[in-house]
Structures are given as C-alpha cells and as structure tokens.
Amino acid sequence: VHLVESGGGLAQPGGSLRLSCTASGFIFSTYAMSWVRQAPGKGLEWVSAIDSDGDKHYADPVKGRFTISRDNAKNTMYLEMNNLKPGDTARYSCAKFRGAEYYSGTTGDQYDYWGQGTQVTVSS
User: Fold this and answer.
1) Contact (CB, 8 A) for 78 and 87
2) Residue 109: what pLDDT?
3) What is the pLDDT of residues 48-80, one digit of tens each?
4) How far are the Cα atoms of 23, 24, 97, 99, 109 from residue 66, in angstroms, in the given order?
5) C-alpha angle 54/39/120, rounded to 5°?
6) Given CA atoms 5, 24, 71, 77 in this order, what sign does their dihedral have?
C-alpha cells in the first residue's frame, strides 16, 4: 500500500489550495479515506473523511471551508481548501481506514496506512 500526497505550499490568508492523495496497492474504491493534520508542536488533528460510498465528514474548524472528494477511477482523494486561515498551517496527511466507513477514534488505530504528508503554510 502506498499513499502519496501533493498540492501543499504557501497560501495567503483567505486563499485556496487543493491537496491530492494518490493511492496504490489496494482496492481504493472499497475503503474510507481521511485527511489529518499536525501543526508544529501540536498533536494530530482529524480534518475530514470520505466513506467508500461518498458520504463526507468534516471537523468543525473546517466545515464550510474545506471540501473532500474522491475519484475512484484515478485512485485519488482530494481536499479543496478555501478561505484558508493561519491556523490551518500544518502538515497534511492522508490515511486509509481499515473499513468502508468513517469512524472516530482517539488512538489512530482506525487507520492502517498513512502517507508522508504535504506541508501547508498560510501566511501573509
């Protein structure tokens, strides 16, 4: 299994970025996927998830600003981030759930594979 993120970079407050997570080594369409982030000096924070059937889930801090989607034909998941804030600065990683549906957890063991991450910096 291999997960590769791309699309990070520097954005101004109020700006936008689109992250991609390209997957290989498993049947992508049958698993839920997630975006998580970690800011410097802080713990891991769940951002958003999408079930295998396309149902979407968002953390409160990003609701209305971020949109998760997936293209099963391309084995790729996306995170469209709009109205970015300095507090969104973090390393964003994608993760594969063990099953087809999102469920919350505090230990991270709901995931079995992670990507290396892509840095997002929001600053003027």
Assistant:
1) no
2) 85
3) 999 999 999 999 999 999 999 999 999 999 999
4) 21, 24, 20, 23, 24
5) 65
6) negative
